Amino acid sequence: MKAQAALEFLMTYGWAILIVIAVGIALYTMGVFKKPGALAPCTPPCFTGTPFAYVDHNADNLVLQVGQKRVNVTEIASSKCPLTSIGIVGEPNTQITITATGCFGGSGNNVQINYKDLESGLSHTVNVTLNGP
User: Domain 42-130 falls in which CATH fold?
Assistant: First the structure.
């Protein structure tokens, strides 16, 4: 009798704990626990349709992951800095760091990157908004 009562107790509370955990996970994935006003580090969805992926940034550096194409980042401009020639060649599947003192910091900083696809020879421009440090 005691064993049966103990087993029923554990089963009842075990299921209740699992349900609470599942609800907590669901709320977390829906973003309920995110701090209001928190901005994504890069918007709109960063570098969609380009050979780059956003990695990280601070006030002076922007780190990008180069995809499958070899590219030459030719110019950079931001809300805080004028258009500047840079000429960084990114090899496929490597990271590049674009350095421009004070150009990438702050929220709502519009950044323009001009680059050339070295396979096709075509020039492109991408515009993103950086948020954060």
Answer: Immunoglobulin-like (2.60.40)
